[in-house]
């Protein structure tokens, strides 16, 4: 059952690499693009910082559902994943390259 917690363990194995997987290196690179710490990512996921640290170090084979959750958090921030025959990468979409909300434009509507 790919896509569930009982499916393929993670994006750690090249043969398991697919559209909903992510390698530890891609996770580290995506965090760097967003200037997020391990703690920042863990907070967005609702998981422990040790999960992020273990996955990114290659020390934990996480269920595919958790990998999909990681990937989804990054994708909502404009991170795009590429899997090009053994050369996996990440980049920010044009949407993700915006400057965000200017301080003088902050209000209760965009504070969510």
Tags for this model:
11% strand, two-stranded antiparallel sheet, 112 residues, disordered N terminus, 434 Repressor (Amino-terminal Domain)
- Helix content percent band: 25-40%
Measured between the Cα atoms of the first and last residue, the distance is 35 Å
User: What is the strand arrangement across the widest sheet?
Assistant: 1-2
CATH architecture: Orthogonal Bundle
What general outline do the C-alpha atoms trace? Answer: globular
The largest sheet is: 2 strands, antiparallel
- What radius of gyration results from the CA coordinates? 15 Å
* Count of discrete alpha- or pi-helical segments spanning 4 or more residues: 4
Number of spatially distinct domains:
1
CATH topology: 434 Repressor (Amino-terminal Domain)
How many β-strand stretches? 2
Q: What sequence of helices (H) and strands (E) makes up the elements?
A: HHHHEE
Strand content: 5-15%
Low-confidence stretches: 1-17
